[in-house]
Design a protein that fits this description.
Its EC number is 2.1.1.148. This is FAD-dependent thymidylate synthase. With 227 residues, this protein is of the alpha+beta class. It folds into 2 domains: 2-98 and 174-225, Gyrase A, domain 2; 110-167. The protein is 41% helix and 16% strand. The protein has 8 helices and 5 strands. The chain has helices spanning 20-28, 40-51, 71-78, 130-156, 161-164, 184-194, 201-214, 219-225; strands spanning 2-5, 9-17, 62-70, 89-93, 175-183. It has a 5-stranded antiparallel beta sheet. A hairpin with a 3-residue loop joins strand 1 and strand 2. Helix 1 crosses helix 2. The longest helix has 27 residues, at 130-156. The two termini are 25 Å apart. The mean pLDDT is 89.
Length: 227
């Protein structure tokens, strides 16, 4: 299953292990018990675990995604992997040291450019004027066009890909592909942070796609873990 995001991006569900029942049985093993199917008492147990912040049972279920996102989104997403070993994350990303895959960039429409917020050092405010938005899109496209020419020139002249990539344009907007495998707890931590109304719009869209893919797999757990 795949959900398209932004202009060229997507989130794809690759694989998963477990469901709400695996959360329950991971908790019940303390008492040498096991459920064969989810019962009302099991639902109560999941509610208790989430309410009391007993997170280890939620680490026995995992989800694997393929994500295609602009670097500004991917690097923000990466923060949830760094320093989060207890939540069991894995991350593997396409490397331009070894390959010269096509360069794609996130290009906002003229109406998508946002102003600086009035009372904050981060985030966005209202949309800019159509005139400014159109100029921003045109400037970005010019940079991308020139950068691609320079990158292709470097490759044609036998410069190593690991150095030629320095010429790739629009670093923050360039798309990258990566696999993200994480425990249910880790996924829900990411969702709680990036579904928030004050998070960056672009990563909100990726979080919404992750939520839509995970919800059918762990309906009870997500109901309790997503604030």
């Amino acid at each position: 299953m795949k959900i398209n995001v932004l202009d060229k991006g997507y989130v794809r569900l690759v694989d998963h292990m477990g469901g709400d029942l695996s959360v329950v049985n991971s908790a019940r093993v303390s008492y040498a018990k096991e459920s064969k199917e989810l019962t009302p008492n099991d639902v109560k147990l999941i509610k208790f675990l989430a309410r009391e912040d007993h997170m280890s049972p939620f680490r026995h279920a995992t989800i694997q995604f393929e994500v295609y996102a602009p670097l500004m989104v991917a690097r923000q997403h990466w923060k949830y992997v760094v320093g989060s070993d207890h939540t069991m994350d894995a991350w593997n990303e396409a490397s331009r040291r070894y390959i010269t895959i096509d360069v794609e960039n996130y290009v906002p429409n003229p109406t998508d450019w946002r102003s600086k917020p009035e009372n904050s050092k981060q985030g966005s405010g209202e949309p800019v004027t159509n005139t400014i938005g159109l100029e921003a899109t045109q400037r970005l496209l010019r940079q991308i066009e020139q950068g691609l020419k320079d990158y292709e020139w470097a490759l044609e002249n036998n410069i190593a890909p690991e150095q030629a990539r320095l010429l790739i344009p629009s670093a923050y907007g360039m798309y990258t592909a990566y696999y993200w495998t994480a425990s249910l707890q880790s996924v829900c931590h990411f969702l709680n942070q990036r579904l928030a109304h004050d998070s960056q719009y672009e990563i909100q869209q990726y979080a919404a796609a992750v939520y839509e893919l995970v919800k059918p797999l762990f309906p009870v757990s997500l109901e309790e873990l997503i604030k």
